[in-house]
Write a structure and sequence with these properties.
Elements lengths: L4 E4 L6 E4 L5 E5 L2 H7 L4 E7 L3 E5 L3 E6 L5 E6 L6 E6 L5 E5 L10 E6 L15 E2 L9
Parallel strand pairs: 3-10, 10-11
Antiparallel strand pairs: 1-2, 2-5, 3-4, 4-9, 6-7, 7-8, 8-9
Length: about 140
């Protein structure tokens, strides 16, 4: 994947550019991500907030008390409902971009699954990835 990627929502009203490579995907299986995505998991890439430029539209935001108990801001298109990114209240300098909104993601690879304790039994989890029953450990 190139150093710059683009993406947007289903209706096209929200478009963005990311100025850093997105190679590692983390699947979150918490019940909140399942409901917010309408799927068995939300597939995300952690990136610096400063690396994202919105070129059209502005996402709406929903403040969610995540399964972890922390406040998570879920940003989405107010027209078509596409989830765009999430951001922890405690980490405004980072965001988790919903990789399903990328125009291309050929070089990205799923490397981790979190909140597997609430994974749906019909949602396959690649056994070669890192797996955590709750959130991933904090790097020191």
């Amino acid at each position: 994947m190139s150093d710059s990627v683009t993406g947007g929502c289903l209706c096209g009203n929200i478009r963005y550019t990311v100025s850093q490579p997105l190679l590692n995907i983390i699947a979150c299986h918490c019940t909140h991500c399942q409901r917010a995505s309408g799927a068995g998991a939300s597939h995300n890439a952690a990136i610096a907030t400063s690396a994202v430029t919105f070129t059209s539209g502005k996402p709406k935001v929903f403040a969610d008390t995540a399964q972890s108990g922390n406040t998570l801001y879920r940003h989405f298109c107010g027209d078509c409902g596409s989830p765009i990114y999430s951001q922890r209240e405690k980490s405004p300098g980072m965001m988790t971009l919903k990789v399903g909104t990328l125009d291309e993601s050929d070089d990205a690879k799923l490397v981790m699954n979190i909140w597997t304790s609430s994974a749906r039994p019909w949602m396959p989890i690649d056994p070669t990835t890192e797996q955590y029953p709750e959130n991933r450990p904090v790097k020191s």
